[in-house]
Specification:
Shape: globular
Helix content: 10-25%
Oligomer: single chain
Radius of gyration: 15 Å
Number of helices: 4
Strand content: 25-35%
Order of helices and strands: HEHEHEEEH
Distance between the termini: 17 Å
CATH topology: Chalcone isomerase
Structural class: alpha+beta
Strand order of the largest sheet: 1-2-3-4-5
CATH superfamily: Cytochrome P460
Number of domains: 1
CATH class: Alpha Beta
Number of strands: 5
Length: about 160
């Protein structure tokens, strides 16, 4: 994952604006049972460690998995980015409490202004704490535009 994406996610996670009351993009209930796409850890010393240090897991529903294989992603594709703290203990690294759940939803009609993608960040993974709302274009998509040739998605599926 590129540092610019992480910066945008950090801004979304820790912004001071009021949370959206009814997010356009909702958190799917069953996302933890979806296909795991990849994981990574941002450790201390990374330029963005103060904001997004932690364990990252990416999950995709079946339509998103088709998109990872063929690009572009079809309408109905949903990608979930699970961000957790990282705990270190006696030469081991494990997941700690959740910082946020970030959701991307492809719907070319509903999200035409952001090239078909809707975005939302849920603080602490709480469905009742959406953070992005109407600011998705500035807070999320502005960075994803750099990946237009990959249908605005940074991650790749790891076999």
């Amino acid at each position: 994952m590129r540092p610019t994406l992480l910066l945008v996610l950090a801004v979304a996670l820790f912004s001071s604006h009021a949370a959206a009351a009814d997010p356009a993009v909702t958190m799917p209930k069953d996302w933890r049972s979806w296909q795991h796409v990849k994981s990574m850890i941002i450790e201390p010393g990374h330029p963005l460690a103060g904001l997004v240090e932690g364990t990252h897991h990416i999950y995709a529903n079946p339509k998103a998995m088709a998109g990872y294989r063929t690009r572009p992603f079809p309408d109905g594709a949903v990608i979930v980015f699970d961000l957790l703290t990282t705990q270190r203990d006696d030469r081991s690294i494990s997941e700690g409490p959740r910082k946020a759940v970030i959701v991307m939803h492809k719907d070319s009609k509903r999200f035409a202004a952001t090239n078909g993608w809707g975005y939302e960040v849920f603080a602490n993974g709480d469905r009742g704490k959406p953070q992005v709302g109407a600011k998705a274009a500035q807070m999320c998509h502005a960075c994803h535009v750099s990946r237009a040739n990959r249908d605005y998605v940074f991650s790749d599926f790891r076999n």
